Amino acid sequence: MNLKFYINEIITFFRVSYFYKLNFWSFILQNILMFALFFVFFKWTGRIGTLNSSEIITYYLLLMAFFQSLIPAVDTGFFSKIRSGGLDGILTLPINLNYYFISMHLEVLIFKFLLNSIIFIFVGFSLKNYIIINFHTIPFFLIAFSISIILYFELRLFFTQFAFFIEREGALASWSYFITMFFSGGILPIMIFPTLFKKIIYVSPFPYLIDYPISIYLGTQTFDLKRLLIPLSYIIILTVVNKVFSEKGLKVYMGYGG
Amino acid sequence: MIQVNNLFRKYKDFEALKDINFHINRNESVALLGLNGSGKSTLIKIMTGILYPTKGDIKVLGFTPYKRKRKFLKEITLINPQKSRLIYDVSPMYNFKLFGSAYGLSSQKINERVLNLAKMLNIESKLNNQVRTLSFGERVKVETIAGLLHEPKIVFLDEPFVGLDFISRRELTIFFKSVKQNSQVFMTSHIFQGIDIFTDRILLLHNSKLHEDITMTIFKQEIKNKMTLIAHTKYGMSLEAPFIKRSLNEYFIVIEKEKIKDLVNKIEIKEGIEKIEIRIPELEDIIETKIK
Q1: pLDDT of residue A206
Q2: Has residue B54 got a pLDDT over 60?
Q3: Which of B65, B130, B253, B262 is geometrically suited to a Cys-Cys bond with B49, CB 3.0 to 4.6 A?
Q4: 53-92 in A: which are within 8 Å (CB) of B?
Q5: pTM score over 0.80
Q6: CA of A94: how far to CAs of A5, B48, B83, B104, B129, in Å?
Q7: Are residues A93 and B51, on separate chains, in Cβ contact within 8 Å?
Q8: Residue A109 contacts residue A69 (beta carbons within 8 Å)
Q9: By three-state DSSP, how is residue B210 classified?
Q10: Of the candidates B70, B102, B158, which has its C-beta nearest A258's C-beta?
Q11: Nearest beta carbon to residue B50 from set A2, A88, A252
């Protein structure tokens, strides 16, 4: 593996992200405003389902952190890159396509993490009287969060690669995003839904992206290694499927234009 | 060096390449010519491993391109200014460092290569500007340098002259002539001017098929005793074969020098001829004659 190239790639894209820092700051501002809205709303409504207002506010604060960190490079233009033949330049380089996208993903994560952590700590500290601080669950939360980052990357790559096979990808792109967000708890916490619904959803990979790590942090679910086998299995399955998918996809890749 | 046998490529209902066969020897530089949509880009993309063929065999430097072996990709390059792989928000120098590292080149080697190539292309002063701020011609030069950093054995050029002004085109033509000293050049183009300077052979694609395969020496011999006669007619008046219609009121023919006088006498008496031009045939005239 040509490690130097992937490190250089991370550094280069880091510079590009820095160049578009205005976009980045507006994205953060948008999320903070969203969180402020949720904060006011849940402070006012109080308990929802099994969650009290502190748990809900903590949930949405962590969700804000997730949104900042999870949205990876494969979401931003990889779909259209396939459709418009934008892979041509990458395919003629002596590099591994998967590592290329992973390093792009890592760059986004590192960049967002560096800027976000300051904001996140600041917001968290300002709201310390309204949120739940569980120091003892943080290590388990971080393990679950790390798994969710890898799982999210594999899931998005899976949906994105449909662009190799279908003409109009826009609807699929937005639907797959909506499904991922809804069933992962990106809109409403899965833990507030009826038990049967929760049980069914928890067989899918989605809740392990957001709902599960936050539940671990809040203490509404206990950290269970057996349970982690589910997202880990999905990661292994999706890695294999994505590899086959990209091989098959490249066979039918059109390289339109030029 | 490059061996193509019974090659087909289908895009859904459209056959972009039909039964293509040719063999290119080591150090033979080739121009793949043809009109828009003739299949040139599809063929060059198959040769560089971007696309899979639907049927047939292809070997480049002994490798099967679509298997995309790292060793193969290190031996070739594809320069396609229409689909830039440059990162626009950083400088050319930053791009070179990134692409150079993909080939395992050291920073020192990259710097040496860049300075040498940039000097030849007269772009040294722009190496630290943001790519986005460069003109199209300058970006093509930067793209060219990025593609040549690793000193590839075969340089594939996909339409390198599209959108360039005549000065940039001339500069690049002379540059590619020097590239030919160390690498084999395989180029697609629908702009025919100047390509004879650095190519040894022409492959002409038309309607997805290989229409003509001719060496530049034979080609030059073929046109040695010929001239192009262009007749401008009044609106609505047409000339019969063997004249070829170029536009609404412009017809042309490439014929032997000794037959020019008779032909001019014959058409001059016709009403409706406004102007007759006679000139040395250009590659464009010959290609148009061959495909029409």
Answers
A1: 94
A2: yes
A3: B65
A4: 85-92
A5: yes
A6: 10, 12, 18, 10, 27
A7: no
A8: yes
A9: strand
A10: B158
A11: A88
What does the alpha-carbon distance between residue B184 and residue A24 come to, in Å, rounded to a whole number?
A: 45
Q: How far apart are CA A24 and CA B166, in angstroms?
A: 42
Whether B252 shows a pLDDT value over 70: the answer reads yes
Amino acid at B47: M
Contact B159 A258 (CB under 8 A): yes
B101 and A95 in contact by Cβ < 8 A? no
B172-194 burial, b at 16+ Cβ within 10 Å, e below that, comes to bbebbeebbeebbbbbbbbbbeb
Structure-block tokens of residue A103: 């390093």
In whole angstroms, what separates CA B180 from the centre of its chain? 14
CB contact under 8 A, A12 and B87: yes
Contacts of B195 (CB under 8 A, 6+ apart): B31, B33, B173, B187, B189, B283
User: If contacts are CB pairs under 8 Å, which of residues 115-134 in chain A contact chain B?
Assistant: none
Model confidence at A70, pLDDT cuts 50, 70, 90, reads: low
Nearest CA to A191 among A167, A157, A221? A221
For the stretch A99-125, pLDDT in tens is 887 887 777 777 777 777 777 777 778
Does position A69 have pLDDT exceeding 70, yes or no? no
> H or E segment at A91?
helix A88-91
Which DSSP state fits B31?
E
Pick from B27-36, B59-68, B269-278: least confident: B269-278
- DSSP class of residue A84? T
Task: Look at the alpha carbons of B133, B134, B136, B139 in this order and tell me if their dihedral is positive or negative.
Answer: negative
Residues of A in contact with B98 (CB under 8 A): 5, 8-9, 12
Tokens of A93: 């380089």
- Bond from prior residue into B242 cis (ω within 30 degrees of 0): yes
The tens digit of pLDDT for each residue in A72-103 reads: 545 556 777 777 778 888 899 998 888 887 88
Kindly indicate the confidence band of residue B103, based on its pLDDT and cuts at 50, 70 and 90: very high
**pLDDT tens for each residue of A180-226:** 889 999 888 998 888 899 999 999 999 999 999 999 999 988 888 88
Q: How far apart are CA B263 and CA B62, in angstroms?
A: 51
Contact call for B70 and A91, based on CB within 8 A: no
